[in-house]
Amino acid sequence: MSLGLLCLILLGLAAAAFFLGRQRAMAAAGGDVRRLHSLPGFYGQITALAVIVPAFAVLVVWLLAEGFVIQSSALSHIDVADVPAGSDVSLVMADVTRLARGLATLAANGTDVEALSHDPVALKTALGAAGVAMGNDPTPAMIDAAKAVRTTAAQSRLGLSVVTLALALAGLGWALVRIKPEFRARNATETVAMGLLIGASLIAVLTTVGIVLSMLSETIHFFGIYPATKFFLSATWTPRFGGGSDLGIWPLVWGTVYVSVIALIVAVPIGLLSAIYLSEYASRRVRGIVKPLIEILAGIPTIVYGLFALITVGPLLRDWIAVPMGFGNSSSSVMTAGLVMGIMVIPFVSSLSDDIINAVPQSLRDGSLGLGATPSETIRKVVLPAALPGIVGAVLLAASRAIGETMIVVLGAGAAARLSLNPFDAMTTVTVKIVSQLTGDTEFNSPETLVAFALGLTLFTLTLGLNILALVIVRKYREQYE
Amino acid sequence: MKDLRLERDVRTETNKIEARGVQVYYGTNHALKDVDVDILDKTVTAFIGPSGCGKSTFLRCLNRMNDTVASAKVQGKITLEGEDIYDPRVDPVQLRAKIGMVFQKPNPFPKSIYDNVAYGPKIHGLTRNKAELDEVVESCLRKAALWNEVKDRLTAPGTGLSGGQQQRLCIARAIATSPEVLLMDEPCSALDPIATAQVEELIDELRSQFSVVIVTHSMQQAARVSQKTAFFHLGHLVEYGETGTIFTNPKDPRTESYITGRIG
Question: What is the ipTM for the molecules in this complex?
Fold first, then answer.
């Protein structure tokens, strides 16, 4: 039975269960809804849920486990001797999988697979004719493995169908037996709803954990072939794809921090001041026009900002500031990327700060104005201190955004890793290097490629640190009003 | 709590604030209609009336807090010691330093107790040095009957105090700018009876130095603390006179209905 059909049957069963449960509840109450603890619909819901939830849970777990079972059944046919020199078990397994798929196609065409499987050469020809290209001639061991894959998969599917359908029917029976007028179906649905919500948040958390773990495993792999001390202590970044690279992280971290700091120097004052204007001074009409306009900045794709940096800001800074003042003649510079990135994160600062400032109770403003303070004194001495934790949060969010930015840096600051204080020098950041290391033409197991994961993990740690800092600050100063 | 003091002498004082023909509009809503009131110096004046009758609106006219509401429009003449407070030459910011205000809900700033009280003197430059400021803070907290409770924790946040203490802190904060008039907009509505009694006692003491105007929903409170009472209804000033007269011998039938609980 195919997976889609199985799902459809389960859904159909659930729909039927809904009506059955409802009907049974009504019958149990003698047709009088008032005698039921809950509305009839709740009994239907709980019956449908009893049918579908366990069945789908088993379905998901089964499908996750199925891959491993099939893999091991195939592996049992492959010896170490079957793996050709210079190849890998995983490559042979890829061939086996392809072969299994080819066998399925042949079987579907009506060919006698059993007869062909004793003759590798004929098998390859037949596969070629059916549109499945094999690189190497299949060995008898591989054919056995492929057949094992097919039989295990078929058995697994059959088992899956039987088990899930049985579970669904058992659930239906269980729910129908339990339905009595005093059964609290409404509360039971509530428990299921809570489970659903917990599941949703669990997925978000587990995804984060998964990301970290996958980065971590590759990073450990990287440090296995490249010394960590050199990575963390070297001040030069010169990857050579032939090997013998110098992969010191500091030029990249420095570039990241430098660009982000410039971006924040641009974005925080402009964003904060415009937020203050919008929330405290602007009339409702002006606010209604200006706020969406600022938020448009957040909607511009970063590659467009990158073009702006490359075509306009970079040459402008070079011709009017860098060259006349003797800072160099590079049109891609930290300053270019920082300025443009600063413009990009203005809406993060201004929009969030605006909301936060608006959340400060009006009574505090009234109190200050009632004491004879001017509006700007009120803002400086009462509103901003009260809104500070939120504003810090907004700034740190903008900082995380700036640290993770890639496109603007590629086009604005260049790709040269350099430790320099001159803001008009071309430099580069961690994210840019991750992209360029991973898109290079080297094999995946070389340190030059794997360094990308170590860089990614460093970046993750950096932004995580910033976020924790933001949380600590917010928690420390929260509860100051109300 | 004190007994109802319906019979008492009212000292003859000079007019502190005179309001003539005051009209207030919120957009198209005519909230206050033709109000004439004289507020006496060193007297507690109570504004009573059902919700939405315009008493808080009128209170907010007296220190031009209505200026901060964009849709509000005030007409008529209000003078503070003979000077028109709506004259373009008058700076509303300076005016509010002279006419302090205490709000319905305690609204201490998210600052220390000390900084809450020192806020006004600091922004108006009323003290020359830290020692003088300390003195002002202490005397205001003493006047607000809060000093003994907070003297050991002046650096603790003002928001950490109890509701009644917070309201007394707000009163201390308001009198720290040495105002001439103190406006109180239902200062006890968020407080329990004990804190209310403390604040009422305080209001009675403040009368020796300030002219106090209090908006209240509680007629008992008006009778307890005030010497003059004004009754507002549907935007009109219905009756204004000695508290004792208003409560025992009202002239207008609407006043009588309200104080006996038939309308409101």
Answer: 0.85
